Amino acid sequence: EVQLVESGGGLVQPGGSLRLSCAASGFTFDDYAMSWVRLAPGKGLEWVSSFYNDAEYADSVKGRFTISRDNAKNTVALQMNNLKPEDTAVYYCVRGTFDSWGQGTQVTVSS
Hints:
Strands 2, 4, 5, 6, 9, 10 and 11 form a seven-stranded mixed β-sheet that branches. Helix content is 0%, strand content 52%. By secondary structure, it is mainly beta. A hairpin with a 5-residue loop joins strand 4 (34-39) and strand 5. It is globular and about 40 Å long.
């Protein structure tokens, strides 16, 4: 059974940082690209970042967010710096062609 478990969300002030982590199990982690997708209140799903051999970012987070993966530990992380209120969303860890999703972790950026 594929499992993706996110952690690390929370409340942070504008300009602050958070690090999200996703622990994967139930599949051969190295074989898949891993992504982060977010859902903001009143908005649609937004792809944030992906990592297979290289990292890719949405323009809205480029230069502020960094994705990384540890294939030995089956984990993928998203380091988020200089957070803005518009980054407030539920962040999901997603496998491959978006065929498996974690339960999501809430990130709230507010003063």
